[in-house]
What does this fold into?
Amino acid sequence: MSPKSLSLTSTLPLPSSPVTIPRLGFGVYLSRSSTCVASCLTAFRTGYRHIDTAQFYANEREVGAAVRESGLPRSEVFVTTKIFSPGGSPEKTYQKCVESVEKIDDGSGEGGSGEGKGYVDLFLIHSASGGSKARKEMWGALERLLEEGRARSIGVSNFGVGHVEEMKQYAKVWPPHVNQIELHPWCQQRVIDKYCQSHGIVVEAYSPLVRNQRAHNPTLTQVSKKHAKSTAQILIRYCLQKNWVPLPKSDTPSRIEENADVYGFELDKEDMQTLDKLDMGSEGAIVEAVRNE
It folds into this structure.
């Protein structure tokens, strides 16, 4: 899809799957309780249809409540969650995942399976750091969810090339549909990005706003002034034009709205090259750069 044709309703196809993922997501890390519900509702009113939560965030139930309260058909909202660590056995790990699904969608609303089973649209392994056995056990649980219709797609987060290649040894579903990693101009993770793009794996960008730590960077502010857009809007637009799925996070209503207003302009080739030059490799990460060996 060309940059000019991007819109808030744009989607990307997932590999070997009928599922498509909205190009812009809404992150809820560190968004607690009623604040999370309110922020999600603001996002829905703004036009977002993609929410990214996780077991580690401790707000899956709040995301589910916001989806129901929004009045939107369940089928029109794309919800992602993640498992951070295995449960101690394949069955316990699977049950941890089922509990997440039920917090988000108990199956009582529109779009359920008709058997009282809810679903999430994407379930990820949150981290590769637990070791090979843990990764295998968690992936097995996600494959079971996919088979049962409790997850419409499955993927990984913070996986390097070696981790994704290793999955071939045990995965029934390969490649993973998604790899969610830290991405922004200062941490472009070019090796894993190229690998994923070449295998059709959709690349999601967490921390695309660099937690506002680079908002006063002279290069970024120069591009911002050129387009009369905020630095956050420039960073989100950059991600979109790199073919990533950015997941900006805010609990401020005006910023939630502003972060979705990124379709009335386009970064030109010079802008993209200027921002590309900011890459610092793994040193530019504020959370985690993947290991590719």
In short: Residues 66 and 210 are 26 Å apart (CA to CA).
